[in-house]
Amino acid sequence: MTLALKPIVETQPVGNHPIHDNPVLDRVLRNRGIESMDEMSYSLTKLIDPFLMMGMQGAVEAFERHLRLQSRVVVIGDFDCDGATSSAIAVEGLRLMGFKDVRFQIPDRRIHGYGLTPSIVQLAGELEPDLMVTVDSGISNIDGGLAVKALPHPCELIITDHHLASKAGLPDAVAIVNPNQPDCPFPSKHLAGCGVIFYTLMALRTHLRKVGYFEEMGRKEPNLIGLIDLVALGTVADVVKLDTNNRNLVKAGVDRIRAGKARLGIMALITVARREYTRVTAQDFGFMLGPRINAAGRLEDMTLGVNCLLSTDKDEAALLAGRLEELNLARRDIEADHVIDANALIEKYNLRLLHGVVLHDPTWHPGVVGIVASRVKDKLNRPVICMTDTDELQEARQALEELRKTDASPAEIAAAEEAMGELYVKGSARSHPLVHLKHLLDKMNSESPGILAKFGGHAMAAGLSLKLKHLPTFMKEFDRLVSLEITHDHMIGNIEVDIMNIDARELNMDLAKAIQEMGPWGQLFPEPQFHAKFNVDSWTATKDGKHIQLNVSVVGHPGIKFKGISFGTMVEGKPPFIDSFDGSFTLDINVWKERETVQLMMRQIQDPKLVLQLEQNAGKPPSQQDAEPAVEPVAKPQAAPRQQAPVVLEQITDRSDPASPQCTNIDGLSRQQPVSNGPGKSAAQLRANLQSVVQQIKARSEKPTINIDDSAAPF
Q: What is the pLDDT of residues 170-197, one digit of tens each?
């Protein structure tokens, strides 16, 4: 068991004037920069004017023109939850405005990549649209904009997005709506993709009202409130900052769901998650609904998620939600397997010495590398990139392995290995708050042009791809650039709480309910977190041996008892405490048989006594070590046999030095499981197969490699 203590830091409040009668709530709000209770009074009437967004007027005029022509519209979405909700909002919203032919197309992660790529334009072009509308993507797809103009059937393009633009410029489009495009005066830069398309629809409705379209056509002006549950879900799931404007949007969505007025797909997802819709919070969007929708884009096809959100049939919605639940369970299994591998690599190769960590495993699932990167980032508290092979590179690896089983000459094998280096690896990155990923990758691309093939994203998440041959150099450069941004102390991190050593008498049901009602809480507007020293009265591990259920009391107040739960804190089958601990926690309301009780959700548990004991035991033989806490036996589920090759670590190292303990094979084939040649395949046939692969590789390598683009979904 390896544990370390992090400093506990109390957030300092803004201003000296109380804004709430309750001292705990007053401190919580002022810690978040709230200066008046009016800021906590949420209403859609407080939303920022949509027409402050650059390009909005041009967009609504283009939409009006196509509406009067009854053009065929194809919405190009994305394969994450924000992309799915954005697609559903666009399709349903445009139909509400009067468009009769609105369709959507979601890129396939493996085939098309992220955004408005030429390949997805070609696929959507088969529908012969008159207008393409991107949601949650498109701002950096210059080649995609050109591909739209080159379609045989004339088609215009409107881009709605929230990602950062490429330094290479903007795509050619009739209108671009994005609060983060250069020189846009819109004051809130934190709208998610779903928020941008919702704002566009609000502006379109205002414009059509102003020009008298609804009256002219004898149509009732549409009410867009039915889309607000989608906006709330996508906003929280995309982990954008919950600034005041976003909180107004999310609060309205939460209220609509709690009132039982949510769309059938969302209600069905709440049901499969075994949650009561009347008790849904914004946090549930990120931890409960979002992952189930994301599972479709990670493992199958996000069309499934969009159809669930658009469904108007209760049985169909339940069926689609059930399928999303199955995919989410499968995603959890794959993720857990990859995280185990990644954690083993952290320890084996001592990756804690690095500032920026890059892991490459040719067997990892491309739809899950992003969430694995997030898990590793949480563990290491520094930027992490998890990468895997493209399908073409995997095929080339297999062909090379088959060739090695024949009498192929060393020259043939060397040529194949060299050609394979021209194929691509791709991955997802997650960052530390002090490292802006998009800016860092821009800097790398400027200082070392040619390493990156495609990249894009924002401050905390990015997607990228590069040639296999550039991977070692990329790893070194990533670590170097990150080391210029964060220090060792930053990587150790701290535990930030609103109030240290909070009085146990303050932790009551009134406070828990007040906090719940003051939401939404979320990214950069976090749920209130407190600290106290606890004595452990008793504890039990959950059946899977991962989590701990606690009965505790605050030191100094033995008569005030609390139940608590701590997720994922069992370490090597042992709890992270002896008989007491420092705990940071949030308040939750547990409901059992209609009885409500306060429950402490432990976010961090630290026991100085246990850490000291482990330090003293280090290096001692087992017979001389102090006894650690007894652990109750837990039935551990048997893992299914793994069907993939062992992990290959691509470590930052000088691979030319065979004496280096970190020197690894760049192609990783020495760690691959043997691949059968298959019946009837001769050496000549294998050579022919590989020669074809090599020719394809060489043909691709002649194409330009730098094409700045969000090449992988940031979430």
A: 999 999 999 999 999 999 999 999 999 9
Residue 344 sits at the vertex; the CA angle it makes with 340 and 348, to the nearest 5 degrees, is 175
- Mention the CATH class of domain 44-328: alpha beta
- The structure tokens listed for 638 are 């048997």
Q: What are phi and psi of 276, to 5 degrees?
A: -85, 125
Altogether, the residues listed in the chain come to a count of 715
Burial track 5-14 (b if 16+ CB lie within 10 A, e otherwise)? eeebeebebe
For 98-108, what is the mean pLDDT? Answer: 97
3-state secondary structure of 359: strand
Helix (H, G, I), strand (E, B) or coil at 656: coil
Q: Where are the alpha helices (DSSP H) in 126-241?
A: 142-149, 193-210, 213-217, 228-237
Helix axes 81-97, 303-310, angle to 10 degrees: 50
pLDDT tens column, 224-261: 999 999 999 999 999 999 999 999 999 999 999 999 99
User: Given this model, what pLDDT does residue 620 score?
Assistant: 64
Contact 301, 123 (CB under 8 A): no
| CA–CA dist 448, 541 (Å, integer) | 50
Tell me the three-class secondary structure of 607-620, residue by residue: CHHHHHHHHHHCCC
Strand 357-360 to 73-76 pairing: unpaired
Where do the domains of the chain lie?
A: 44-328, 332-429+459-484+648-701
CB 582 within 8 A of CB 8: yes
